[in-house]
Amino acid sequence: MNPSVVPFFDYPRLWLDDRDEMLEIIDQVSSTGGFIMQKALSDFEKQLADYCGSPYAVGVANATDGMEIFLEAIGIEPGDEIIISSHTMLATASAIKVAGGVPIPVDIGYDNLIDPEAVEDAITSRTVGIMPTQLNGRTCDMDSILEIANKYGLFVVEDAAQALGSKYKGKNAGTFGLASDISFFPAKVLGSFGDAGAVLVNDRRLYEKIYQIHDHGRDVNDGEVKRWGRNSRLDNIQAAILSHKLLDYEGVITRRREIASIYHKRLEQLEELKLPPSPNSDSNHFDVFQNYELSASNRDGLRQFLTKSKIGSLIQWGGTAIHQFKNLGFNQECPRTEKFFKECIMLPMNIFISNENVHYIADKVVEFYRK
Ligand SMILES: Cc1ncc(COP(=O)(O)O)c(C=O)c1O
């Protein structure tokens, strides 16, 4: 890529870089006629579950469906409150709403993930669960979250849409609670050619319910209809492509961590920035850098300067935190999130950018603050 033009994410390259291999996979699956609920899908589900160290995985149409389905399977009563981070996608909150519950956003902590103290402060007699978001490819402080959940008798589920392969104390994101969702949206670390997702499940009975709901109520064992369900199945072509990509996933993570290290080395001296933790800075966390999100003083000025320099950047969720959706009925106060959302910006972070690109971006950021 021309180092002086760096898009935030080069979508065409997702296809073009592997076009021949991908065409072969599409041809293989299509030639068998196995488009829906066939071997390519069950093979991928097994591979994904093994990769994550989870007993079960179910391919679904997208991660948002995944959350709605596992919450329906767990059984939410009207008015049940589930605590989430204020810094997450609206999908985390809307899944709770669709399942009949009430999403309660709370503030973020020092690492921009849900703050366990804020979680405990938000517990009421109506709280039934906690759904932390494993954001930007980093897993939350799950010891504290599980301890709070045990203390108050709450369930834990995870929005691990951004965190496939991320670990806390050696355990994979998505395996700490009853169930979790993973997203394969194209720009995700494991990206498909369209919408796609999966649910990881820790318990056989819950797995069977989730399986039924995602396939018209049909049972995984005998195909009998056991309940009302819907169609949220993962296509076999997408599953076969994801299976293939998962084989080299460790290489992808290693590359993203290298990029994060370069950003860190080049930018850590700028006191105008607060960077995410560098890889290997904390032995409890293994981050996969879904995003490289930082705080920047004069964020909007920096963004304009980057745009002028033909470097793509993004403000997550279009710059609106969950508690700021007043039109959707939220009225919580989250001062740390509030401050962070005035300063947050994401720099390009993906395997399409070369070291030359990363240095070019760093040069421009340094130039902006030192000019
Ligand atoms: C934190 C988070 N939750 C949920 C989702 C929803 O995933 P999907 O687009 O697969 O429904 C995303 C996707 O961007 C996400 O980043």
Question: How would you describe this structure to a colleague?
Answer:
The protein is of the alpha/beta class. Helices cover 40% and strands 14% of the residues. It contains 13 helices and 14 strands. It has a 4-stranded mixed sheet, with helices on both faces. Strand 4, helix 7 (142-152) and strand 5 (155-156) form a beta-alpha-beta unit. It is globular, with a radius of gyration of 21 Å. The protein binds pyridoxal-5'-phosphate (PLP). Pyridoxal-5'-phosphate is lined by residues 62-64, 88-89, 91-92, 133, 159, 161-162, 183, 185, 195, 197.
Count the helices. How many? Answer: 13
Structural class based on helices, strands and sheet pairing? alpha/beta
Q: What's the helical proportion of residues?
A: 40-55%
Can you summarize the main beta sheet? 4 strands, mixed
**Which stretches of 5+ consecutive residues score pLDDT under 50?**
none
Within the largest sheet, what's the order of strands? 1-10-9-6
Instruction: Give the bound compounds.
Output: pyridoxal-5'-phosphate
Radius of gyration: 21 Å
Mean pLDDT: 97
Distance between the termini: 26 Å
Fraction in beta strands: 5-15%
| Pattern of helices and strands | HHHEHEHEHEHEEEEEEHHHEEEHHEH
Number of strand segments: 14
Quick one: overall form? Answer: globular
Keywords:
single chain; about 375 residues; alpha/beta; 4-stranded mixed sheet; 4-stranded parallel sheet; 13 helices; 14 strands; binds pyridoxal-5'-phosphate
